[in-house]
Design brief:
The protein has 10 helices and no strands. The radius of gyration is 20 Å and the shape is elongated. The two termini are 37 Å apart.
């Protein structure tokens, strides 16, 4: 690799790392996890079947000492603060695009705190909980740390998509500038 190419690569990687770090804070992952950790989950009615939570997954979480509100989505929890949707969506490893594709867009709730109606909150909770239940059932030794890492992986994937879009936008602008210059 040439010296110039290596220098360009390092600069690109530095910009990417800083972009990911900013996105991490923009997503509010730490704040959401801390907020949920402070919730008294026992105040919610956890009708497992109605919420899409498998009894096996519930029992695994309870026996591992994991607060249910840190693992499973309750409609009231996301209605109280719609930004919490991001926590559960990322825990279920679902992209915003996939949520939009199934008719349950989340972006306005996650970033603009647009309020949810009860039916959409219930649909989101069931969607998240079915996937989260499968993940928990697949790993009976799951820990809170592992849940954190799943959310981090999902946030990284989302940030990577944003990074690729940004790079594409920059390339598009460069091409437009070249075309305009050529026309002039």
């Amino acid at each position: 690799m040439s010296l110039e190419k290596a220098k360009k690569w390092r600069m690109d990687q530095l910009q990417r790392a800083l972009f990911f770090h900013r996105k991490f804070h923009e997503y509010g992952m730490i704040e959401l996890a801390e907020e949920l950790d402070q919730l008294k989950g026992e105040r919610y009615e956890w009708a497992l079947e109605a919420l899409g939570i498998s009894e096996i997954a519930w029992n695994i979480a309870i026996h591992r000492g994991i607060k249910p509100v840190l693992v499973f989505c309750h409609p009231d929890v996301i209605m109280e603060n719609p930004r919490r949707i991001a926590y559960y969506r990322m825990l279920a490893i679902l992209s915003q695009k996939s949520m939009q594709n199934i008719g349950l867009p989340t972006q306005k709730h996650e970033f603009e705190s647009e309020q949810l109606d009860r039916e959409k909150a219930r649909s989101l909770a069931i969607t998240f909980n079915k996937i989260i239940s499968a993940i928990v059932e697949d790993d009976p030794e799951i820990t809170v740390r592992e849940l954190d890492m799943l959310r981090a992986m999902s946030a990284g994937t989302q940030a990577d998509g944003s990074w690729r879009n940004r790079k594409g936008d920059e390339a598009e602008e460069a091409i437009k500038a070249l075309i305009k210059a050529r026309i002039r």
